[in-house]
Structures are given as C-alpha cells and as structure tokens.
Amino acid sequence: VLWTFSISKKTYGLFRVHPSVSQALAENKPVVALESTIITHGMPYPHNLSTAKEVEAIVRAEGATPATVGVLEGEVRVGLSSEELDYLAQCKSSLKVSRRDLPYVISKGFSGGTTVSATMIAAHRAGIPVFVTGGIGGVHRDGENSLDISADLTELGRTPIAVVSAGVKSILDIGRTLEFLETQGVCVATYGASKNFPAFFSPQSGFTSAYHVCNPEEAAKLIASTLSLGLQSGVLLAVPIPAESAAAGQQIEEAIQAAVTEARYVTNFYAVNELTDGKSLQANIALIHNNAKVGSQIACALSKQMNERTLKGKTHLSRKLSSNTKSDVVIGGINVDFIAKGKTETLLFGQTNPGSVCQSFGGVGRNIADSLSRLSHRPLFISATGADSNSDAVLNYCKHMNTSGVARLEGQSTATYCAVITESGELSLGLGDMDIHQQITEQYVSQFEKQLSSATLVCLDGNIPVSTIDYVCSVAKKHNINVWYEPTDSEKACKPFLSDSWKSLSYSSPNLAELCTMNKTLGIAAPEVLPNALDEMLGVAVTLSRPLLDHLHCLVVTLGAHGVLLCGEHDAGTVNLQPRKQKRKRQLCALHYPALTVTPEETMNVSGAGDSLAGALIAGILQGKDTDSCVRMGLLAARTSLVSPHPIAPVLTLDSVDPNRDQMQHWPKPKFLWID
C-alpha cells in the first residue's frame, strides 16, 4: 500500500493519511471522518464490517470521501483500505483507544478502534472538519460524585471539529452532559425543526439544545463560523433517529429505562441487544446510516461554501491587485519524496527488509507556489519534471496551482529523493536524483519574459542554475521588478552572489548558515561556528545582514524555534516590507518576532514550515498589509504546516492566517534593534 503523507523528524510513522483522503483534502473536496470503535467494540462480526463498509458507501454516494480512523500496529491511520477494515473487524486483541490511550497503544505497536476523542484528534491533524459517529459519551449517572465523565466531552471543548451524532444514550445523565458541554464552550445544535436534544434511540430526551439548524447549509454555516472564529472548540450536531425507526427506538428506550430502574448498567451494544431481543441492532444500523447521510451532506455544503468564499476572496483580491493585470511568478524545483522505513532497528543490505514506503510532494519552489495559491494568489509556477508517472502524480496533486510553466521533458526523470530509515527514524541511506532542476534553463525561462517583466514579484529558489538566476535578475533590473530569493540550503545560497546579480534582489529569506555563505561568497568574514544563545544569534544575524542591505530591500532571517528576524529600512518604528519603487539612502533597523509554540507531540512535519512562512509573508506583502500582520501571517502559516501531515497544509487559507481571527493568540511586541 502506498501512503501519501509527510515526514516529521519526531513523529515519523505515527500518523498516516490514505492517498484518497490526502488528494481530496488537497483539492478542497469534502471529507468525512469516521470512528472505528463501532467496528472493534460496537457490534459483533460480521455486522461490524458490513456496517462500516455500508457507512463508507453512503458517504461516497453523497459526494464525499470517507476517512475511517483506526490504529494499526502502533500507527494512526486516517482512511482505511478494505483489507484494513476487515483486519480491525476480526482482530480479537483490538483495544479501545481514547486520547488517554493513544501514547501507550502507539508505543507498544498495538491495534485498536478510535473513540470519539481519538478520532477527533486524528481528523483535526489531517485537516478534516466534519466527523460522523453514532453517539457520544457523556456524564454518567451519579457522575457528580464519581466524576465518571467521558473524554469525548473535554475533547469537544478543545478540538475544533464538528461532530455529527445521534446525541447521548439515555443510560447517561443527559442534563449534566449538556451542562458540562456548555462549561466546555461547545456549541450544541439539534439538526431539524426543533431544539429537542435526541437520546440516541429516541428523538427526544426531555432536554433541549441551545440552538437548531434546519438543513445542511445552515449546519455548514455554523461550522464555518466556528472555524473562522478560531475558538479551538468543537460543534456538536445532534441528529434525531429517522422517523421510520423511531417506533423501534422507543421500545428499546423503554427496555433501557426498565434496566436503569433495576440499577443494571447497559452501556454497550451487547447488553442492549440482549435486553431488547436483538431489536437494537437494526435500529442502531439505521441510526448510523442516517448520521452518515446527514454528516456527508453537511460536509459537502461546508466544502462548497468554503470554496465559494475562497473564490470570492480571489475575485476581490484580483480586482484590488490586478488593475494593471500584474501577477507574481515562482521559479524553482518540484520533488517527489519516497521514505522507506524499516520495521527493525538494523537493516540488512543485500536483501529485502520488511517496512513501509511513503510518498510526499515537495520542492521549495513548489511549496511556496502552493502556499501562495491557497492564500488567494495563483502565481505562474515555472519548473521542470520528467514525462513519467511521478510527474503525473505531483501535477495531479497541484491542480489548484497554475502549473502552465512546468515543462514535462521526455527522457528526463522527475526529481526524486529516497531515504531509507530504521525503525527509530535514523537515516540509514539517502539517494537523490535532482538533475532535472538543471533543465530550468535561461533559454526555457526566457519564454516567459513577458510575464516576468510585468510581475508584481518574482520568487526564485536555489535549485535552479546560476545562469537562470542571472537572467531573471537582469530582467528584474531592467524592469524594476522585485525579486525574492529563497536560498534552499547553505551550499546553494551562494548562487546570486557569484556575480553582481545579488544587487538586483529585493528580498531573501536565509537561515543563519545560509546568511554566512552569502557573506563568505562576497569575501566578508563570517563565523565558522554559529551561536546557540538567542542574543548572540541576533547579533550575528544583524552583523551579517548589514552589508547585504546596501542593495537588498529586506532580509527575513529565519531562526528556527527562535522565530524570525526582519532586517531592513526603518519606517515609524518598524521595518518597511512594502516593495520599493527606487533605491535611496535609508536608516536601517531589525525586528525579532518569536516563533509560535508547537509542542513535539503536535509536530507532524518539519519540511514545509519555512516555505509556508515565506509564502504567507509574500502574500501579506502583495496584499499591502502592515509589517506586523505580514510576519504574523507567516508565523501562523508555519505553525499550520508543522501540525499538518503535508508540507503545505491543505487547510491553509487567508482565514487561517488572519492574525485577528484567533482572539486567544497573544502576540508579544517584537524586539527592536537599530542597525548601524
């Protein structure tokens, strides 16, 4: 099985996203998350398997992609194959996996079905906003004394996912459950014409939701508002049991209530099924089918609304920015990465080792163009691939981008990188085939001189040949075009500085090592050993930036976990990021912005954070935003990348990087430094 996801140095292999789910998310198509405890603990075999497959079929029939979540041999899978569903359905040793259990189950390499809380975590990580389940847990009777409260409720209070369910089983204390959800800040709405809160098998529990939504469009608007506010809490949409099953449901409820009166606990399927002489099975299946249908319709409506909102934003932005029909251009590399991870600590060369092979799409230029495309820009992306299956895969993934400038060359291979790593994540062997980047020649790029000469901004990555960089810089000088150079790595950082081409650059985003290379190439001394303390890092960055600012408009020095340092022209207490129309003598300064906190447990991917930062910064500049807003957009985009299984998160939007959206986010004042 070939899985599509990106690699995190710390959490490699813990989360895997199925290719069908990954592609749907990348194309902004509706996806519905599904839990798996109903498979492992909710029903007996083969009813569990048939129900799981029927639910997935319903989701597909409504136009969405199903993403059943489960844990297989210590890996959280978002989207399961038919064989994996069958494995979970028949596995006798499957555990019930909630938030509490995830670390242990993963550390032991066990398999299990994910509860509502664990499924919410996985869905949120993958960027799936809608999750369908049967019913959620709640506050148990006498919970005020026992404190027996389901983790589903606290998860709803801290994970921004819309959970579509049939409410709460009447065996639980529904009143206290709703009170607890209110305390957690969870928006609860009944789906239908009334506010009656359902009790799983019964459309009425005797309690009411705070609100109700009448149709998928209203539900989608509620979810979109929750996500846009950045509250970091979820939405519970309670769907009453279908009318045709309500009579059977009422009989089941009466049996349950009789058992409660006798102080018998009947919280699982087997007890309820025995109590009702098997009547609950069909009602349970009908209820789950209905939830899947409703949830999928909501997911489709949400996807449509978000896409229309994005299109409206792009139209508004294009009117604002394109009165002179200018656009932006990105020139750089495309990579297809294959990561082979062994299942043993020691790999034996010369023979086949058991393991898994994973694919992801990257390349610095591709990542920046992807980021800009998701932030209401659609730059012309100029690159080169082979005419092969890898090219087909990456270009299919990049359908949302303007890839009309990508050459497909016969007899050439798309740039690929293969890493073979041990079970613990140590690199055993790495192989790269990047020769195709040398085909992004001056002659090829010159075909786009009209677009280059009228561009708002041109972004180059360090993968392209020196002669191509020189050519673009000469066009930029002739037409007074702003050029952003992303060095890619410390070896390639030197390319524009081998001649006077660097004097035509306006922006560059090096890290400290790349900044050292730039200085050394110009014959300027730079430290051989880089400092680790923040104050020393800032001092070195300012010193090394100063000579480059004789010609560059602004340097964005990335400092990893320490944030970012802006160096450039002083303007009213900040650094002027807006494109300059002409060079002039200016007072220089620097601003240090700390990085946003991302814990190791949250980190899923480290390969696209810098490119996300650059892309969002460029988007802010092109939209004429102030310096603080531009940098904060970049920092939010970088954080979104770090917690996503993709280098550029499919959920990246202008809303998601709006610094004013998340009222809980505290933005410290950046540190100001003068540059002599």
From TrEMBL:
Tell me where the signal peptide lies: none
Please give the GO cellular component terms listed in this UniProt entry: cytoplasm
Q: Name one GO molecular function term.
A: pseudouridylate synthase activity
**Span of domain Carbohydrate kinase PfkB:** 329-649
List where the protein spans the membrane.
Answer: none
What is an example of a Pfam family matching this protein?
A: PfkB
Specify the superkingdom.
Eukaryota
**HAMAP family xref list:** PsiMP_glycosidase
Q: What is this protein called?
A: Pseudouridine-metabolizing bifunctional protein C1861.05-like
Q: Which organism is it from?
A: Stegastes partitus
